[in-house]
Q: What sequence folds into this?
């Protein structure tokens, strides 16, 4: 189960960002050709740094946004394609499983020929539910194969004892992107909700239901999900660790929803025995129990059948895959057409066998010297961060001492796991994509549940090596940089220090700062939820954090939709802190040396340009709206202008004056 607090990442935690159909090579970190020098850097630095790139890089028709993240992800997937095609061409080789999984996904003719046959046993299992008492065993099976109905169940590190894994229940089972989608009454939200009902009806029609029956089932699905969403926590509320940590006994859990046989469910999952667990959202569990008490058996079957076909749609014949794409990618995000099949299959194989494929990617695309250079950069950032903490004018000595201890204890993982995951128990058959997907989900579910009651493996990674992202884990107190992100535009050995510190250096500082943002600061050096701040310093932190929240809440994402400064607070704090710390680290690295300009820009200016050009991006209006409502990261232009307008070092580097748009009169700063 993906936990709400496990990762806080640079882009989309744990995600490899989507890339377009055409192949490209990774670009340099900084390119003057991307700039529009007719724009004043003091009025709109994002446009100054990126306008030419934006104008020359329209969004491909199979994409919802296109930025330099995507360029790199595209490059990585081209590498993975070569690896997978070679593996698929050698079905008896040592890389058979990744090759067979990829081959089963690309076998469109075979998928069409099999039709619904691979899904029918699961539909029959749901259809055969004779009474509600049998639901726990059915639900355990569906959860095992990746179908998240009603709630999620898995393992997580105990917030109060971060070295130990415990069981956890959390809210789930919604088909729309967020619980608020079920209740917003503005015209666009109503339109999207109606489109969702139409989509669900069409999926039931594809399963064989008559139009009236399919429409009735779609309405039933919306009714069930709305009942669940009513007591689900908002994304902002879930950002508070104390709001999603409620350690209870299994008996206390049962009292929340007595109509569900929890003991029978846990037994059916095959999880190790346990006496207590984290019930992340108790009110949601109550809502589940209440809904279960009033739902008809037919409505239960309808709801579970919907979530089964929704989960399986990308592995089913083209009609299902296209209908799934039409709602989730076109209606919600604005994509014009599907990505080519091979690219979707690269993504799917990475998701299913991430470390098996990642091992091959590392051997082909990750130079060993990158790890050494990253080690130096991280060391430089740590020194700069420690100096920043010691010099903070608003923080008292006691809290500074604890903050420095946490920084010193912050571990790092670079590139790839030290020990690769063993996939020997995962069954992969060359001729059945859906079965392979179910088997991969089953493998991962069992692996995850097997951790309950065991010590936390702090060497485990939460993303695969080719991933274009980085993340911080508050429960591990570690920063993590997979091999996939350690390439241009983030990390470029051919560039000068200024550009690298502005690109990957800010990424490093960003992840470090997550340890001290509004969520991360609540965990101590060992990863335990522990209030180590003095009350006075906590108040001062909140005042400064509120400044950032209010700043970003003023930014418009699209039309009348503004960013949610509280939802994006952690990422905005990390962006601002990361840029400040990385700039200080660069000054220490240069040690006051007067270096000649390169491309007409001083080292300080190149730092800010290297930072800004990482975020050059185009985005569709539909995607901008969806992300404003659901993404904890701000829009790209505000990740640049919002940060730099707070930095006096930026104003000095480009000789900006009070009154310029890039000079905030009341600049915000936490770290």
A:
């Amino acid at each position: 189960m993906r936990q709400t607090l496990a990762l806080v990442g640079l882009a989309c935690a744990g995600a490899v960002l989507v890339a377009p159909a055409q192949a490209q090579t990774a670009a340099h970190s900084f390119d003057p050709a991307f700039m529009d020098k007719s724009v004043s850097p003091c009025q709109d630095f994002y446009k100054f740094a990126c306008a030419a790139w934006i104008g020359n890089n329209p969004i491909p028709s199979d994409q919802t946004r296109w930025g330099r993240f995507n360029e790199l992800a595209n490059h990585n997937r081209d590498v993975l394609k070569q690896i997978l095609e070679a593996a698929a061409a050698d079905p008896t080789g040592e890389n058979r499983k990744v090759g067979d999984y990829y081959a089963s996904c690309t076998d469109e003719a075979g998928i069409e020929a099999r039709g619904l046959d691979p899904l029918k046993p699961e539909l029959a299992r749901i259809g055969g539910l004779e009474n509600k008492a049998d639901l726990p065993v059915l639900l355990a099976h569906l959860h095992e194969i990746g179908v998240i109905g009603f709630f999620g169940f898995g393992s997580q590190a105990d917030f109060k004892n971060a070295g130990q894994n415990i069981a956890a229940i959390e809210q789930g089972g919604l088909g729309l992107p967020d619980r608020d989608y079920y209740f917003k009454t503005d015209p666009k939200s109503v339109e999207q909700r109606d489109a969702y009902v139409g989509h669900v009806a069409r999926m039931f029609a594809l399963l064989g239901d008559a139009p009236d029956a399919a429409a009735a089932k779609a309405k039933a699905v919306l009714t069930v999900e709305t009942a669940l969403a009513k007591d689900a926590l908002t994304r902002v509320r879930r950002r508070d660790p104390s709001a999603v940590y409620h350690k209870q006994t299994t008996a206390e859990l049962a009292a929340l929803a007595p109509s569900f046989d929890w003991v029978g469910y846990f037994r059916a999952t095959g999880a190790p025995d346990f006496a207590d667990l984290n019930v992340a959202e108790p009110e949601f569990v109550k809502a589940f129990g209440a809904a279960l008490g009033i739902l008809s058996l037919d409505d239960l079957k309808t709801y579970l059948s919907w979530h089964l076909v929704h989960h399986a749609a990308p592995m089913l014949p083209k009609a299902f895959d296209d209908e799934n794409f039409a709602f989730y990618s076109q209606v919600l995000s604005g994509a014009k057409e599907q990505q080519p099949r091979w690219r979707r299959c690269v993504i799917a194989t990475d998701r299913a066998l991430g470390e098996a494929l990642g091992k091959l990617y590392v051997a082909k695309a990750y130079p060993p010297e990158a790890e050494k250079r990253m080690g130096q950069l991280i060391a430089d950032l740590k020194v700069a961060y420690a100096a920043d903490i010691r010099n903070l004018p608003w923080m008292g000595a006691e809290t500074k001492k604890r903050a420095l201890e946490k920084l010193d204890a912050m571990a790092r993982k670079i590139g790839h796991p030290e020990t690769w995951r063993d996939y020997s128990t995962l069954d992969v058959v060359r001729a059945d994509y859906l079965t392979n997907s179910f088997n991969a989900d089953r493998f991962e579910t069992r692996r995850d549940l097997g951790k309950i009651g065991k010590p936390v493996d702090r060497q485990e990674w939460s993303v695969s090596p080719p991933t274009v992202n980085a993340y911080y884990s508050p429960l591990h107190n570690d920063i993590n940089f997979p091999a996939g992100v350690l390439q241009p535009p983030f990390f470029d050995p051919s560039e000068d220090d200024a550009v690298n510190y502005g690109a990957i250096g800010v990424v490093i500082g960003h992840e470090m700062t997550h340890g001290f943002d509004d969520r991360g600061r609540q965990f101590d050096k060992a990863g335990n939820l522990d209030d180590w701040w003095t009350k006075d310093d906590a108040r001062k932190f909140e005042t400064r954090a509120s400044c950032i929240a209010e700043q970003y809440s003023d930014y418009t994402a699209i039309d009348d939709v503004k960013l949610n400064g509280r939802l994006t607070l952690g990422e905005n704090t990390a962006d601002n802190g990361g840029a400040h710390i990385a700039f200080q680290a660069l000054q220490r690295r240069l040690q006051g040396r007067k270096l000649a300009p390169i491309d007409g820009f001083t080292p300080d200016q190149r730092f800010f340009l290297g930072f800004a050009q990482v975020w050059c991006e185009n985005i569709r209006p539909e995607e901008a709206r969806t992300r404003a409502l659901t993404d904890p990261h701000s829009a790209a232009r505000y990740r640049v202008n919002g940060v730099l307008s707070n930095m006096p070092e930026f104003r000095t580097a480009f000789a900006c004056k009070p009154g310029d748009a890039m000079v905030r009169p009341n600049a915000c700063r936490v770290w």
Remarks:
- The chain is about 50% helix and 10% strand.
- Confidence is low (pLDDT under 50) at residues 12-26.
- Residues 38 and 440 are 52 Å apart (CA to CA).
